[in-house]
From TrEMBL:
Signal peptide: none annotated. The chain crosses the membrane at residues 77-97. This is Endolytic murein transglycosylase. Its main location: membrane. It comes from Nakamurella endophytica. The lineage of its organism: Bacteria, Bacillati, Actinomycetota, Actinomycetes, Nakamurellales.
Length: 489
């Protein structure tokens, strides 16, 4: 019998219970009992049979193990489900990617509202695509590039502003971009014209006053630009100098800029008038307008604010920002011209011949009005020679400039006009240029011909010009011109 109750200190050598010890233990147990002789109940410890506690522990361990196994099975199942969902999502993504591989975003359907898009000088096809995508014209740069891979017209698109619908298919956007009707804000500055509109009419031939030089061509010049509409035709182009034309108006640069800036968008426009632009021309800070540094002082000192920017606009093509304010529009043209002036040889060459850049532009404007393509360098030499000997220039072109007239004939009364631009009355150069000179006039001014001439006159309707040193020689040339029908009596 084993001592499961812990009543014995030890077993005898035979493994049996010692009866004496058993009796002693029972006696001790009886002696500890309560006085009423009853056994105290052990309420806190339930009665158990030998071996019951071990079985309960084993059962508890088995149940805990089962619970852990069930949890592991649930976790494993959840992981399998998650992995299955992820695998399905990845598979779906791969299928969709393969389905759309090689396809790029592109618009379809009706076009949207119009926008302005600018193509800048030096832009690549990729740059143009990015500008169109940013403006909402195309859905993606890739679509436009794909549509224009072999499109030579798009690859040659000119810098400027374009009015285009939004939400266009890439191919339609390419077609719209090369359509000249969609390019807006274009401005062409023709050599020989001026800021203001000028009146035209039947132009009479010019006769020289005593000792005066006779203008050899009408206003408008012959440096690649066209003659003013209705004005006399430059003799170098086969027309007859001094011939008449239909009365009208030659558009000046202020009117041209005003028209270039007025571009409707989606049926509405924010246009302003030529008077609005004239106000800016008269009052705006020259520096803010972009006037070259070498011209600022002369502009500020000009006696007539309406003529202070004359001659500073370089002939050529410009892009006026659509929707711009009057000051922004004028700044675009004046600033662009300043960049052209300052990157040319004007400043350096003017210094080399002893004049300022502003004086060179002023002389070139006179050469533009007085010379032909073949004679501009020699006309410039006549002007330099007269300035050197302090002889009045006596140019009819300066007289009619003050009158805003497009002709070369002047009357005695007009030559007495006290305007500071009247070079019959005032020695030296006029206070500002009288036109925008073309490149040939500028080149002739900076590299004048060789000669001691003080006079020149057109002697026939083919455009031949007679240059003279003395007044007697000049008088003979004038007589020849009259015989050839160049001048009216």
């Amino acid at each position: 019998m084993n001592d499961h109750l812990g009543l014995f200190d030890r077993a005898d050598d035979t493994g049996n219970v010692d009866l004496d010890e058993l009796r002693a233990a029972l006696a001790r147990s009886t002696g500890d009992a309560p006085p009423d002789g009853r056994r105290a109940a052990r309420a806190s410890v339930p009665e158990q049979r030998p071996g019951g506690s071990a079985r309960q522990d084993q059962r508890a361990r088995r149940e805990a193990l089962l619970r852990r196994r069930r949890r592991r099975r649930r976790h494993t199942l959840l992981a399998v489900v998650v992995l299955a969902v992820l695998a399905a999502a990845i598979t779906t993504g791969i299928v969709l990617w393969r389905h759309n591989a090689g396809r790029v975003a592109d618009f379809s359907g009706a076009p949207g509202p119009q926008v302005f898009v600018r193509v800048q000088s030096g832009d690549t096809r990729e740059d143009v695509a990015a500008a169109l995508q940013q403006a909402g014209v195309v859905a993606s740069t890739e679509a436009f590039l794909d549509a224009t891979t072999n499109d030579g017209d798009v690859q040659k698109v000119k810098p400027g502003y374009y009015r285009l619908p939004t939400a266009l298919p890439a191919s339609a956007a390419a077609d719209a971009l090369v359509d000249p009707q969609n390019r807006v804000g274009q401005l062409r500055i023709v050599p020989g014209r001026q800021l203001a509109d000028i009146r035209t009419g039947a132009a009479a031939a010019s006769t020289t006053s005593s000792g005066g030089a006779t203008a050899s061509t009408p206003a408008g010049g012959t440096t690649g630009g066209t003659a003013p509409s209705g004005g006399a035709t430059p003799s170098g182009t086969g027309g007859a100098a001094g011939t008449g034309g239909t009365a009208g108006t030659v558009e000046g640069y202020i009117s041209a800029i005003t028209q270039a800036a007025c571009v409707p968008l989606n049926g509405s426009s924010r246009c302003w008038t030529a008077q609005d632009l004239w106000q800016v021309e008269r009052t705006a800070d020259p520096v803010a307008l972009g006037v070259p540094d070498w011209a600022v002082a002369a502009v500020q000192a000009a006696p007539d604010p309406s003529r202070r920017l004359e001659g500073l606009i370089v002939p050529g093509d410009y892009d006026v920002p659509p929707g711009s304010t009057p000051q922004q529009a004028l700044q675009a043209v004046i600033g662009g011209s300043a960049a052209n002036w300052n990157t040319s040889s004007l400043v350096a060459k003017a210094k080399s011949i002893g004049v300022t850049p502003y004086q060179a532009v002023t002389i070139a404007s006179l050469v533009e009005r007085e010379g032909t393509a073949a004679t501009m360098a020699d006309v410039a030499r006549v002007l330099y020679n007269r300035i050197q000997v302090r002889m009045p220039l006596q140019l009819d072109s300066t007289v009619v400039y003050a009158l805003d007239k497009a002709r070369i004939a002047t009357t005695a009364a007009e030559r007495r006009n006290p305007s500071p631009y009247n070079t019959y009355l005032h020695s030296g150069l006029p206070p500002t240029p009288i036109s925008s000179p073309g490149q040939q006039a500028v080149d002739g001014t900076l590299d004048p011909g060789d000669g001691d001439w003080l006079y020149f006159v057109l002697v026939d309707r083919k455009g031949d010009v007679c240059f003279s040193v003395t007044y007697a020689e000049h008088s003979a040339c004038v007589a020849q011109a009259r015989r050839n029908g160049v001048f009216d009596e």
